[in-house]
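Query protein
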Amino acid sequence: MSASQFDEFDRRMRRINRRHTQLSQGYVTSINGDGLVVAKPKRKMRRGTLRSLAILVIMMMIFKAVLHANLGAAEYDARVASFANGSVFEKVGAWVMVSDPLTEMMSVRIARYL
């Protein structure tokens, strides 16, 4: 077997293995116009993006509550207010970090352990 034949064989085997892996995770069959039955991999639902966003929001709330508990309400609000006078990024950060009722409630509970 020559090198070019081996490369062609190797490419075909990789393509077959990749297709087998995709089909092993679920497939849907359909019939082409010529009557050929074709299996296509099922499309995965994109739950990862929503899950990642939810985890990010939860972690941000915990971070805010820990800072609020550690610094105290007055110092925390003063630092957030100082960000509100800065650049665009600092203003966005101040808007995100503003003390809300949930942060204050979590802060009271976290302060017991600090």
In short: The mean pLDDT is 89. The first helix runs from residue 3 to 24. Residues 3-41 form one domain.
